[in-house]
Design a protein that fits this description.
Aminoglycoside 3'-phosphotransferase, Chain: A, domain 2, disordered C terminus, two-stranded antiparallel ribbon, 10 helices, alpha+beta, disordered N terminus, Phosphorylase Kinase, domain 1, 35% helix, 14 strands
C-alpha cells in the first residue's frame, strides 16, 4: 500500500510566551463540545513511546471546550481541523475562544514539567522585561503542559507572524537581543555539547562517505566543504561569562509580525551560554556579507546595554558548533527520515541552508573586522583574533 502524502505545512508557527494565570471559572456555563480530529500521515507516526504506529498528535476527536477549560480560557472554543503549522519539534493547532486566538503546540517528544521549568521561566521573565514575544498560557493549576485525550499540549498566545527574513531592521534585531541578554534570571542547567563541541573530522568523513554511498544529491557539496568545516572547528573555545540565553536566535525564530514589529519565539532550547558567542550567531544570521548591517546591529546592541561583544574568532564558537551539528543532523535525517524530517527532501532543504551560504573563515573574519569598529568604547579584553 503506498504511503499517505505528508501535508505541506509551513515550517514556522506562532509560538508565544509570557505568563497568564487566570482563575478558572467557578461554574462554567454548559457548552456543547466542539470536536476536531486529524489522522496523521503514515510518514509522521510514532511518538516518545517508541511505537512507530502511534500518532504524534491527536488522531481521535478532541473536545476543544475541554482543552480550553484546562487553560482557563473562555467559551465558544473551536479547534482547527488539523495542525496549521509544523516545526522540527512539534506541530501547532489554532484554538479560537471568547478570549482570543491561541497556539496549541503538540510536541513530538513528551517532556516533564521539570525539564521545561527553567526555559519557561526565562521566557516569562523575558516577556516581563519587554522582549517582544508571545505569552505563555499555563493550565489552571499552574503547569506548562496539559494532557488531553492522551496527548501532551502546551498553550501560547497567538501572534500573526510573517515569513522568516534575514533582512530585518538590524538595529531592531540588536536592541531585542540586548534586552534578552539582560533578563534578570540566573544561568541554570548544564552546558550542552550542541553549543560548544565540534563535530570532528572523523565524523565528517564518515557522514560524507555514507551519503556518497547512499546517493545523496548534496554529498559532493558537503565533501567540498569538509576541510572548511574542520578548520573552523579549530576556532572553538569554551564559553566564558555564562548567563541564560535563548540559544536558538535564527531568522526562523526572530520573525517579522503583521503589525511591522518583530517577535521572538521558540524558547524551549534556552539555557546557559556566553552572550558574546550568541551575538556572533546573530551577526552571521542577520548580516552575512553586509558589513553595514553588521555594524548597525552591533551598535544598537551596545546602545541598548547588551553585555556581549564580538572581537575575536572564538566568539563564533557557538555558531560553528551549532551549524556543524545542524548539518550533521540534517545529513543523518536524509539517511534515515523520521519525525523531524519525514521526507528526504525536508532534510535536503535543511542542510541546503548551510551549503548555500556557508559560514566560511573568510566571511567570519570579514565580519569580525567590521564589528570591531562598532565595538570601540566597549570594555573588553584585547586577545588577538588568531
Amino acid at each position: 500500500m503506498p504511503a499517505e502524502p505528508v501535508p505541506n505545512l509551513p515550517e514556522q508557527f506562532a509560538l508565544p510566551v509570557g505568563v497568564v494565570l487566570d482563575p478558572p471559572p467557578a461554574e462554567p456555563e454548559p457548552e456543547p463540545p466542539h470536536f476536531a480530529s486529524f489522522q496523521p500521515p503514515l510518514g509522521e507516526r510514532g511518538n516518545a513511546s517508541g511505537d512507530p504506529g502511534a500518532p504524534v498528535w491527536w488522531s481521535c476527536p478532541v473536545d476543544a471546550v475541554h482543552l480550553a477549560r484546562r487553560f482557563a480560557l473562555g467559551g465558544r472554543a473551536r479547534l482547527s481541523d488539523g495542525p496549521v503549522a509544523r516545526g522540527k519539534q512539534g506541530v501547532v493547532w489554532r484554538l479560537e475562544t471568547a478570549d482570543g486566538s491561541w497556539a496549541v503546540k503538540v510536541p513530538f517528544r513528551e517532556s516533564t514539567e521539570e525539564e521545561v521549568r527553567s526555559a519557561t521561566a526565562f521566557h516569562e521573565a523575558a516577556h516581563a522585561a519587554g522582549v517582544p514575544t508571545p505569552r505563555v498560557r499555563r493550565t489552571t493549576d499552574g503547569q506548562v503542559f496539559a494532557t488531553v485525550d492522551g496527548t501532551q499540549a502546551r498553550m501560547y498566545e497567538w501572534v500573526d507572524l510573517l515569513a522568516p527574513d534575514t533582512r530585518l531592521d538590524p538595529a531592531r534585531v540588536g536592541a531585542v537581543v540586548a534586552v534578552v541578554h539582560q533578563v534578570p534570571i540566573g544561568a541554570s542547567g548544564t552546558l550542552d555539547p550542541w553549543y560548544r563541541e565540534p563535530v570532528g573530522a572523523r565524523r565528517w568523513d564518515g557522514l560524507v562517505e555514507e551519503l556518497r554511498l547512499a546517493g545523496a544529491p548534496f554529498a559532493g557539496r558537503l565533501a567540498g566543504l569538509r576541510d572548511e568545516l574542520v578548520a573552523l572547528e579549530s576556532w572553538i573555545e569554551p564559553p566564558e561569562a555564562l548567563r541564560t540565553c535563548h540559544r536558538d536566535l535564527w531568522a526562523d525564530n526572530l520573525l517579522p509580525t503583521a503589525d511591522g514589529d518583530v517577535c521572538l519565539i521558540d524558547w524551549e532550547n534556552s539555557g546557559p551560554a556566553d552572550p558574546s558567542q550568541e551575538l556572533g550567531c546573530v551577526l552571521f544570521e542577520f548580516a552575512r556579507t553586509d558589513l553595514g548591517r553588521a555594524r548597525a546591529l552591533t551598535r544598537a546592541y551596545c546602545d541598548a546595554g547588551g553585555p556581549g561583544v564580538v572581537h575575536r574568532r572564538g566568539h563564533f564558537s557557538m555558531l560553528i558548533a551549532q551549524l556543524g551539528h545542524i548539518a550533521e543532523l540534517a545529513a543523518a535525517d536524509w539517511l534515515r527520515p523520521g519525525l523531524r524530517s519525514p521526507r528526504r527532501s525536508d532534510a535536503e532543504a535543511w542542510i541546503g541552508e548551510i551549503l548555500d551560504e556557508p559560514h566560511t573563515r573568510e566571511l567570519l573574519d570579514t565580519l569580525l573586522t567590521a564589528v570591531r569598529a562598532a565595538n570601540l568604547g566597549q570594555p573588553h579584553e584585547t586577545r588577538p583574533a588568531s
